[in-house]
Amino acid sequence: GTSGEESGYLHQFILYSSLDLVYSTMWTNNNMFLRIVDKFNFLLVSAYVTQGGKTFLLLHNGKSEDAVRTFFSDVHELYVKFLMNPFYSAGNDTIDAPIISPYFDSQVRSVA
């Protein structure tokens, strides 16, 4: 594979491996924004957990805490609006289904 493809897999692995830390932190913290929960080399993993238990992760290289908090807040708002859309269908009618929407992706990227 290419180095870009390999780094993509590495980023996914870093995020996935940080979930244990997210789950242990969320039970000891009442805030939705959990701040930085993990580090790998120069990459940081920040986490945000909604009231419903959905977890948002951001892999970054040292953004300001306020910028990350604002990003998560905006993405959470987009997520709620997307789920509340009466025309949205999760495919198999479960809220746990992945969101496959070019529009949603573009909105999240515009917030970043």
Per-chain topology:
Layout: H1 3-17, H2 19-26, E1 33-40, E2 43-49, E3 55-60, H3 65-84, H4 102-111
Antiparallel strand pairs: 1-2, 2-3
Helix pairs in contact: 3-4
Proportion in β-strands: 15-25%
Q: DSSP helix count?
A: 4
Q: Percent range for helical residues? A: 40-55%
Class of secondary structure makeup: alpha+beta
Major beta-sheet overview: 3 strands, antiparallel
- SSE string, helices as H and strands as E: HHEEEHH
Strand runs, count: 3
Quick one: overall form?
globular
**How are the strands ordered across the major sheet?**
1-2-3
Distance between the termini: 28 Å
Mean pLDDT: 90
| Computed Rg | 15 Å
Question: Unreliable stretches, pLDDT < 50, 5 or more residues?
Answer: none
Question: Could you characterize the architecture of this molecule?
Answer:
The protein has helices at residues 3-17, 19-26, 65-84, 102-111; strands at 33-40, 43-49, 55-60. It is an alpha+beta fold. A three-stranded antiparallel sheet has the order 1-2-3. Helix 3 (65-84) packs antiparallel against helix 4 (102-111). The two termini are 28 Å apart.
